[in-house]
Amino acid sequence: MASDPDDMKRRDFMRRSLLTIPAVSLGSSLAFDAYADNGAPALSDYQPMFFEAQEWQFILAATDRLIPRDEHGPGALEAHVPVFIDKELAGGYGRAEDWYMQGPFHVDAPAALGYQLPHTPADIYRLGIAATRRYCQQRFNRDFVTLSHEDQESVLSALEQGRPDFARLGVDDLPSATFFSFLLQNTKEGFLADPIYGGNRHMVGWKMLGFTGARASFREWVDQYDRDYPLGPVSLSGERG
Amino acid sequence: MIRILSRMSALALVLGAMTAQAQGADDHDQALIERGAYLARAGDCVACHTAPDGDDFAGGLAIESPFGAIYSTNITPDPDAGIGRYSEAEFAAALRKGKRADGANLYPAMPYPSYARLTDDDLHALYVYFMQGVAPNDHQPQQTDLSFPFNQRWGISAWNWLFADQQPFEPNEQDSDRVNRGRYLVEGLGHCGSCHTPRGIFQQEKALGDDDGDDYLAGANLNGWLAPGLRGGGEDHLGVAGWQAQDIVDYLATGRNAHSAVTGEMTSVIENSTSHMSREDLAAMAAYLKTLPVSDSTDIGSERRISEQKTDQTEQQLRDATALDEGARLYLDNCNACHFADGRGGSGVFPALVGNSQVNADNPTGLLHTMLAGAQLPSTSERPEALMMPGFGWRLSDKEMADLATFVRQGWGNQGSPVTPEDVKKVRNSMDAREGFSGNPEATGANHPDDRAGASAQ
Amino acid sequence: MSITRPDVDVVIIGLGWTGSIMGMELTDAGLNVLALERGGERTKEDFLYPKPADELKYGVRLKMMQRPKQNTVTIRRNAEETAVPQRHWTTFHPGDGVGGAGSHWTGVLYRATPNELALKSFADRTFEPGFLPEDMTIQDYGVTYEELEPHYDFFEKVAGLSGQAGNVQGEIVEGGNPFEGPRQNPFPLPPLPRTLTDTLFTEATQKLGWHPYPYPSANVSGAWTNPYGMQLGPCNFCGFCSNYGCLNYSKASPQTCVLDALKQRENFSYRTNCEVTRIVKSDDGETVTGVRYRDGEGNDVYQPAKMVILASFPLSNVRLLLLSQIGRPYDPVANTGVVGRNFSYQITGSIDMYFKRHQFNPFISAGGSGQVIDDFSPDTFDTAKHGFIGGSYIYTTQGPGGAIGAVKVPPRTPSWGSEWKKNASEHYGHHMMLGTTGTNMSYRDVYLDLDPTYTDPHGDPLLRMTYDWKDNDLRMTQFMAERMREIVAELKPDYHTESFKQVGDHFDPSHYQSTHLTGGAIMGTDPNTSVLNRYLQHWDAHNLFVMGASAFPQNMQHNPTGTVAALTYWSAKHIRERYLDNPGPLMAKEDPANA
Prior knowledge:
By secondary structure, chain B is mainly alpha-helical.
């Protein structure tokens, strides 16, 4: 496949206005370099952008209970779900950048009318983790992260059912069930969103489901009824599983 | 995209100015100017005589030659910067003989060996158009300054004597009017041979017409891109012969047809020139090309004899998706969405890879460039949609790209040679930064400022 | 600061489907047309593979949608409640940017039936006097199916509609929808290939004696070149459809079907990030003189125009009319005024079935793929016997694509932990859905007005929606639930779950239902009960035309886009053929019958 210099120049000699393709350098940011390790830094090496140290420990422990590593495969920690949540909260989502956040806030409006709290998602985590840690201190006289798995699960169940009264723990306008619903939703997102966002590392969440990721091409499969799809997923950046 | 659009609107402005200027002229002049404008399109004068972001016909495009940069000249009727002082005879000498008004030779970047075919009538129309239909522009393009001995323009006389001895066009009495019209356009204004005829060691086209040997329009290699052979005769469906005349017309009018879509240099030819030509003239060009017998030297590239059995095998392999080599898996992950398991794409929308000339070309550079950087069709009046193919250079390593290209070049009965990671690396390195990629979700397309929040993870 | 721009013939507010279509039609007529789009530019580059295949960005964070921060709507169920804003979108997804909702819709492209366009006349013919509830305010559109048919036909060619005709020039065609209105031509393209869910649905409903047919799909089944020379490629069932831009040039949208052709025209231009804040009335009050908008740099700009086409999302259309004080606002107590009147929505319900024996591979999914029955449409059976006016189509579609939104676990499964994981993993791929999409009648106390409390960032009031479900419509959807249970009985899933509204339920906008929001600036033949005449021309300003589903007097069972587009071409035809030569009201206010 030699291309001799004259040949090059001849092509240029003939050059007309080139097809214009918007400029993006093909430089060092090539995605395949980035996942060459197949290993983003270990979770222990990750420097959170949003979470404070103790909050981070809480998120690690809580997401590990919500999607544990077990006989059905890797869990939230292997998937780097805490990294996903940290990045989301440090970004526009955490700031509720797209949301309508003007008052007045009718926090007691019927649930059917949707989210009416004055908090951004980042606020909800900051306040919710603090209140939950206080709740653990009151109930167990220990921090959440030092509880047994069983006790951690019991705390999470209590949150899910809205039992802890955050107002009595010094946090107003935040039902504990609302905090939990954000935590659970974002945990599942981090397990199942494209790895480009920091979670679903090595597409472990997709593999658990059998989801195909960003392949987006199944015309030939429409009429292959009841056949298990044989291929693993592919991510936006081209990582294959 | 933006540049293409601005180029189009700039042309629109010139044509608008032309109309305005010509209002005083009588109907005859007006008709003549319009014919001249049409012929200027057919000759694609604007492509070379316009600098990037410059005014149309004001010159200044740097044309890299093996001898150094040749700058195109201002051909607007400005008396000082342009050709405003040219008599019609001087204009004719420039177009047909490559002679400047002062007697010096033009560099043969100007396709005067082809334009020599022009009839007197057409030459006159072009002259009237450039003098009356184009707005004068006093832009002084950079002067060409080649190193010795190439700055010795007199040397071109010898070259001209050797290689540019074409005569004015004579219709061939055995052919129909339509075929003669086609030959006139292909050999003359269209100067198709500039790219599609192989060149000799003196950079001369090996043949300037079909009476000049089988090399004429036999296909050439332009920096690794195949400028495929256009010889379309014969019954074995080789090369352009694999296309019906209508397919050729569609391609020239719109940059796409039932089989293929334009990539590379031809894109701008279609955008600036052939898409503005009448269907009758395009049909004449197609009819002419279909009369040229495929010669031994024709680089057909496309539609080699594809074994249907192999086509089915590849399709079945991709459909099953159980026994895939690396290239086939990469095809499913990157290409199958548009080109499909049968490799046939979508008629007129997504080009077929089966038998595709660029895919099968001996040199894979054109294919690799397209795979790395993507491609975009021109927006033409008949087919306005500037369909884009994303590039995958950001997504695939050299090794992956090589495996994928090899699969595509050998799947479905295609007969391209294997591609190595080194081949890919070479093409990747040769691409300038502007030719980067257009589909990276991390790089572009942020709809809101925070879109990329968290997107730097990896 | 305030700037005045050079005047143009036409300003189009919003560059989605209707704005693009009007752009083509009015530039064809030789007019100098300027479109102002509130959102940003969206080109095919934004939709290049693999960019759209990003569920978090588009399916969850809804990045194709209007940002509630910029503009949202407040909701209450009745006049006693305090309306509160949709702070992030849940119940519907209004579009934003070039292409509008047309760039992220599902691609189901229907016509209205002849009776749906004249529903009040149909009801008067069909039901005993007094059958309709007193507070029901349904009306005829004022335009007939026969009048719209050529425009449906043309738009279907623009969009490359794929499917099976059921009624061609009065002949019923096997395999199509026998209950549709007669069409002059078959569909431009054949149906999409059949998925497993399609086949199961077809077999079951045929056994029940019903008439299944393929969803009319604007995700095209094959390569297509439309009348503008624009091109669509074969849909590959990529699984990223509703809420996403199409990565394959397969879903009809302004980008794939119109815009490159429109942008070639010298007499067309458009500006993005330009939010129109007012349509400006002339001193005599008979016409409008142009629009005011806020451009991307925050300038307040006055754009004079001889004609204004309001072509934004229905909610935005109504709000802008109210803010501009053009037309009398609707007052439900006094029952006066028109702007905001006859707002309606869509009644939906679904059943989710689990089959261990089937593998559906739900990532094989296209928005316009599916099978449907229309056997229970407003005019195909005796609805009075069941206590309602209206009807629904019942359908299946394979999917959903995506992962975050595709996890299905059996009832009573914990929502997290090992048990959730186990079930999520075992059940993925084994679900099939049945859906129903139904009519929603209009009612006296269901309407739109300006919110007294909440404003957009510039201090203009938000739109307020007062909406609740009504017994007539709930009885209708309950009837559909019974029919769908018959399908379930045929299909014999291992288990199924249901989601239907019950009589007595109240509107619950905390989860997604539909983006088919209609009415509020309705068309008709009487200025006392409609904002627009039957040509979509404003009764009170003859050079203002208002496009979109805000013109629907009540919502039909079928998806609105086809009718929205057909009405746009209908309006354009009358602008071109009559209005331009003789600008003025196309219908006399005093005596609509003579128009």
